[in-house]
Amino acid sequence: MRVWQISSFGVDSLEFVERPTPSPEAGEVLVKVRAISFNYRDLLMVKGLYNPNLKLPRIPCSDGVGEVEALGEGVTAWKPGDRVAGIFMQNWLDGPPSAAKCRRALGGDIDGMLAEYVVLKETGLVAIPEHLSFQEAATLPCAAVTAWNALAAGDLKPGGTVLIQGTGGVSIFALQLARLRGARVLGISSSHQKLERAYALGLDAGLNYRENPEWDRWAMDETHGQGVDLVVEVGGVATLPRSLRALRIGGVIAQVGVLSGAADAAPFPVASVLHKQVHLKGIYVGSRQDFEDLNRAITLAVLRPIGENFHWSQAREVLSRMEEGSHFGKLVLTVG
Fold first, then answer.
1. Following DSSP, what letter does each residue of 123-164 receive, concatenated?
2. In this structure, are 82 and 169 located in the same domain?
3. What ranges make up the beta strands (E) of 25-109?
4. Taking burial as the number of CB atoms within 10 A of a residue's CB, which of 34, 84, 174, 336 is the most buried?
5. Domain containing residue 258
6. Element (H, E) at 332
7. pLDDT, tens digit (0-9, with 9 covering 90-100), for 105-153
C-alpha cells in the first residue's frame, strides 16, 4: 500500500512511500481509507513543532474515514463494507479524560490515517452519518468533536452568544453547531470574503480584525456591554487577553487552539480572570461517546460540513495552504 510518512521534519520532507498492507489481529479491523482531513496539529507534527522527539518514521493525520475491509478474530461490532471513522484517541472511549485514555492518539503516539489502509481496534471506530460523503465525514473526528465539546463546556443555551475566531475547521463547526442550539454567533476574520461565507452559514455579526483590531470592544458593543457567554478560543497566547475582555462575568473560554506563537504573547491578565470570575476550560477533542453523540446531532439536523477537497497526491501543497491560512473550513484529501 502507499502512505505518506514523516521521515524527517518539514513539509517538503514528507515522503510518499510503499509499505506492506497490514493484517488485522484479534479485536482489530482493517479499514480501506477513502478520505482524510488536515488539522493544524498535523502541520505542527510534520514540521516537528508539536513533538520534536516524535518517533520516526510516522504516518501523520488523526482524521480519516473509509470502509471496513477485513475483520480480526472476535470482532462483532463491524462487518465488511461498513463506513467508519477512526476516533482521535484510540483509548478514550467514554467518561472524563485521564493520562491512560489520552495515549494512542492517531498521527502522534501511533501511526495516523494518511495511508491506503489502516488497522485500528474494534473500539477505535465509529459509524459515520449516512447522509455524508466520505469527504464530508473525514472532517469530523478532531475539529467537529472539539467544537461539540467546546459548546458543551459553555453550557450554551438558546439565545446565548458565542464568539468564534477565524474561519478554520473548529470555528466553522462551532458556528454550525451553535446555530443548532439556537445561539447567536459573533465571528472575527481577516477577510471580508470569508465573513460573507460565514454569514451564509448563519453568522449573526462579523468583524474584520485587520481593519479593527479591538474586536473585544466590538464584542462588548454587540452584547450591549454585557459580554459574550462563550469564546471558542483558537488563537492562544496572543488572543486570550482580548477573549477575556470580550467575555461576560462568569462566562466561559473554551481553549482549543494555539495558532499564535510565544513571540506574539501579551501579559496574561490575571486580574480579568479574577474580576470576571471566568471559567477557562481546555478542550482536547473528546471521547468515542462524544463522537457518537455529535453524529446523532449531525444526522438529525442533516448538517453538512464545509471543506475544500483535493487529491491525496497534493498532501504537501495542502499543508502549505493550511500554513498560509487561506482556507475556509476543512482541508480534505481523497485517498487513492
1. GGEEEPPTTS-HHHHTTIIIIIHHHHHHHHHTT--TT-EEEE
2. no
3. 28-38, 63-71, 83-86
4. 174
5. 144-282
6. strand 330-334
7. 999 999 999 999 999 999 999 999 999 999 999 999 999 999 999 999 9
pLDDT score of 275: 83
Cell numbers representing residue 164 in the block: 468564534
Query: Is 278 in the same domain as 324?
Result: no
Mark whether 156 and 192 lie in a shared domain. Answer: yes
Note the pTM of the prediction, 2 decimals: 0.94
- Alpha-carbon 195 to chain mean position: 20
CATH number reported for the structural domain that contains residue 190 in this entry: 3.40.50.720
Would you tell me how many other CB atoms lie within 10 Å of the CB of residue 40? 20
Whether 21 and 124 map to the same domain: the answer is yes
Within-domain flag for 296: no
Query: What is the count of structural domains for the chain?
Result: 2
Q: Is the same domain home to 108 and 152?
A: no
Q: Does residue 235 have a pLDDT over 70?
A: yes
Residue 62: CATH number of its domain: 3.90.180.10
Q: What is the mean pLDDT of residues 316-326?
A: 92
Asked if residue 293 belongs to a domain, the reply is no
Alpha helices in the chain (DSSP H): 40-47, 134-137, 145-153, 169-180, 192-200, 215-222, 240-246, 270-275, 288-301, 315-324
Residue 261 pLDDT exceeds 60:
no
- Name the helix (H) or strand (E) containing 208: strand 205-208
Mean residue pLDDT across the chain: 95
Q: How far apart are CA 315 and CA 38, in angstroms?
A: 9
